[in-house]
Amino acid sequence: MKKFNFLYQFIMNPKTVGAILPSSSFLGDRMIEKIDFKDEKYIVEYGPGTGVFTEKLIKKRDPKTVILLVENNKEFYSLLKEKYKDEDYIFIEYGSAEKIERYLKKYRIPYVDYVISGLPFASLPKNVSNEILLNTTKILKENGQFITFQYTKIKKAFFNQFFTKIDVKREYRNFPPAYIFNCTILKKHTEEYYDIKNINC
What we know:
There is one protein chain. The protein is of the alpha/beta class and 201 residues long. It has one domain (23-188): Rossmann fold (3-Layer(aba) Sandwich), CATH 3.40.50. The chain is 34% helix and 23% strand. It has a seven-stranded mixed beta sheet with strand order 3-2-1-4-5-7-6, with helices on both faces. Strand 4 (112-117), helix 7 and strand 5 (140-150) form a beta-alpha-beta unit. This is SAM-dependent methyltransferase. It holds the Pfam family RrnaAD.
């Protein structure tokens, strides 16, 4: 039923769902393998979908670590609300990752250690991708990480315009096989550092 629902959402919303099946457990393991679960306090997940990565985060986190999920698909949002209704320190927001600063203020989250993303940047509008990544650099602490996956490496140059270090790995045990991008801010920049008009996808 979960796979059927995911396929249906892909057919109805191909630009925002981005895949015909949920991510594999293998990909989930690769997405969170670099997270230091002893020291993290705040984790954000963009586009959690059915919660494949979320499940792994919850199992490994400290019980008081805050996880904020941002989902803009109504069906997935409703599924997540029901699924995690009894979990402490899990907040679920229906909306766009572009507005992440607003959501952090709402839940009194001062900064973010890790942002995990399932968003399909290859199909998102350029201005939306720019806004999401720019705002992500603002909320991440120094040396914080943005971890995402894509099905090609075509967006690596684009990610390089926001992050000072990117490690790329491949996970073949997923359909389709995926690239994992571990993006780090080694030195925080002011907003003026980024000229949005000159950022290209």
